TrEMBL record:
This is KilA-N domain-containing protein. Residues 1-125 form the KilA-N domain. InterPro entries: KilA/APSES_HTH, KilA_N. It comes from the Bacteria. Pfam families: KilA-N. The lineage of its organism: Bacteria, Pseudomonadati, Pseudomonadota, Gammaproteobacteria, Enterobacterales.
Length: 148
């Protein structure tokens, strides 16, 4: 799968576990204050969805079974896969990173049109054949989009 996701010219970063940066999605959706990831994460329905993901064992880890702490509460997910949410404070990679299911839920919370845009972007990048130079070409295209 292609790791680069660009929505409306905004590259959505991924962490080492493949989670997507909600802060980048927020910018891609227009960056309105009322749609800040913090407000969505405080939502009762969101908290229940995150809890359900934990109940099901988090994100299945790939070849490495590394543990990551939940974004609040210090809950350890060792041997359960990867935590569905992780917040990085400070540094170049700061932001809140979430699994694919939470990306869809966040996009749906923002608006139906943004939700469809995110789904279609995921479909496009997951169904496109990956070539050895595909990642480099996508990064160049993202640079052109951002410069244009």
């Amino acid at each position: 799968m292609n790791n680069l996701m660009v929505i409306d010219g905004i590259e959505v970063r991924r962490d080492v576990h493949g989670r997507y940066c909600l802060n980048d999605l927020h910018r891609a959706a227009g960056g309105e204050q009322k749609y800040r990831p913090k407000y969505w994460l405080d939502n009762k329905q969101t908290r229940e969805l995150i809890e359900q993901l934990f109940t099901e064992g988090g994100i299945p880890s790939s070849e490495q079974n590394q543990s990551v702490s939940f974004f609040q509460g210090g809950r350890d997910t060792q041997n359960l896969g990867i935590a569905p949410v992780n917040t990085v404070r400070g540094g170049a990679e700061q932001g809140t990173y979430v699994c694919k299911e939470l990306v869809f839920a966040y996009a749906m919370w923002i608006s139906p049109s943004f939700h469809l845009k995110v789904i279609r972007t995921f479909d496009r990048i997951t169904s496109a054949p990956q070539t050895s130079s595909g990642m480099a070409a996508d990064k160049m295209q993202a640079g052109v989009i951002l410069l244009g």
